[in-house]
């Protein structure tokens, strides 16, 4: 695959930092190596000495003095080797990517650690998206994606979706505007990037079926575009077996996948991963070299120690516990919704993630309902419009998260919210200002 044709001028111009190359080299060298090369500070001058972190139901993570010195020091831009190799093994065992055995020119599977998957996404977009480019996605979508993409000045093309995610027939219809043969031509307007959240979508809770992924992948082959698979809710799928991923189908090396530990280990530690064709992951790493240099070494060592103590079996056992929690929260959310909202709203039960996407009947836009009336009664949901490509477009949806609140709170919010809505919509006089704003 000709990866050069996908790169923005900014990304193509990135060159390796000579100092960073030495840091990578040093990271792989035996401890006997004496280096006067790097400009690293002397960790003996740092105030932190050692650490012991209690782990629920498991061995404590102990960072003795030598390890602590490493944790406090600069490290390589791809990520620390022991975390990377653990993650590569996990990725291979979960997705069996065809690209794992490819040569690097053919787009061999490569990985790097990012400071949350948000950093990975933002850098992927900067690598691939020029001003004026056509980018395919299924909106409503994660507002963090819109925040990263929109300033690039691209043209976001909305592919229709439902509770099973992006609809391939709509994608096909959109792509029929172009001749696939034009994709390779310089300056062609054929989209070069498609972005999607395949499991437990934020905000819609939608999960894409395997058949749809296969159809989308075939279209990507026909029109030669890359697929960005943003999958932070992969580990929060309520049903087993987990759905096959785009990465698992990627015979051409055209998928860039972002994973996140935010929903399963910690969101504050900021650990994410990019998995994709080596020539593209290398470009992202050049960007990391020039910006954050690397994700916190301390954080990576902490997570890596935990994962090595657990082993893949322990990791998956932990995930099972997390899924159990979210499944029960989802069920609470659904039974409260059935109890209170049945007559005034509709929704689809999410099969993954932490969100219920609720469509209120008979209302055009939920912004004012939430920001004024609901807040006044001390309940908060997200008005759906913020996830639209144009956030001022009216939207009858609200996003309700079932991650943090207790079952009682989930029930109370839906009860209060329903009361507010019914009062406004059904009881308030027809000429009331609020009613006019909300319904029209
Ligand atoms: C769809 C989606 N992508 C990416 C992210 C960013 O996650 P992280 O914490 O890994 O940066 C989020 C966070 O909520 C998300 O919902």
Number of domains: 2
**CATH homologous superfamily of the largest domain?**
Type I PLP-dependent aspartate aminotransferase-like (Major domain)
| Strand adjacency order, main sheet | 3-11-10-9-8-4-5
CATH architecture classification of the largest domain? 3-Layer(aba) Sandwich
- Please name the CATH topology of the largest domain: Aspartate Aminotransferase, domain 2
Q: For the report, how would you describe the main beta sheet? A: 7 strands, mixed
What is the percent of helical residues? Answer: 25-40%
Query: What radius of gyration results from the CA coordinates?
Result: 24 Å
Q: What are the secondary-structure elements, in order, as H or E? A: HHEEHHEHEHEEEHEHEEEHHEEHEEHH
Count of DSSP-assigned helices = 13
Category from helices, strands and their pairing: alpha/beta
Low-confidence stretches at least 5 residues in length (pLDDT < 50)?
A: 435-440
In words, what does this structure look like?
Belongs to the class-I pyridoxal-phosphate-dependent aminotransferase family. InterPro entries: Aminotransferase_I/II_large, Class-I_PLP-dep_aminotransf, PyrdxlP-dep_Trfase, PyrdxlP-dep_Trfase_major. This is Kynurenine/alpha-aminoadipate aminotransferase, mitochondrial. It is an enzyme of class 2 (transferase). Pathway: Amino-acid degradation; L-lysine degradation via saccharopine pathway; glutaryl-CoA from L-lysine: step 4/6. There is one protein chain. The protein has 440 residues and is of the alpha/beta class. The protein has two domains: 19-28 and 41-312, 3-Layer(aba) Sandwich (Aspartate Aminotransferase, domain 2), CATH 3.40.640.10; 321-422, Aspartate Aminotransferase, domain 1 (Alpha-Beta Complex). It is 40% helix and 14% strand. It has helices at residues 9-12, 18-28, 65-71, 81-95, 116-128, 143-149, 168-175, 210-223, 278-290, 297-340, 367-376, 407-427, 433-439, and strands at residues 51-53, 61-63, 109-114, 134-137, 155-158, 161-162, 165-166, 193-196, 226-230, 255-260, 272-277, 345-346, 355-360, 382-383, 397-401. It has a seven-stranded mixed β-sheet with strand order 3-11-10-9-8-4-5, with helices on both faces. A four-stranded antiparallel β-sheet has the order 12-13-15-14, with helices on one face. Strands 1-2 form a two-stranded antiparallel sheet. A hairpin with an 8-residue loop joins β12 (345-346) and β13 (355-360). α5 runs parallel beside α6 (143-149). The longest helix has 44 residues, at 297-340. It is globular and about 80 Å long. The termini are far apart. Residues 435-440 have low confidence and may be disordered.
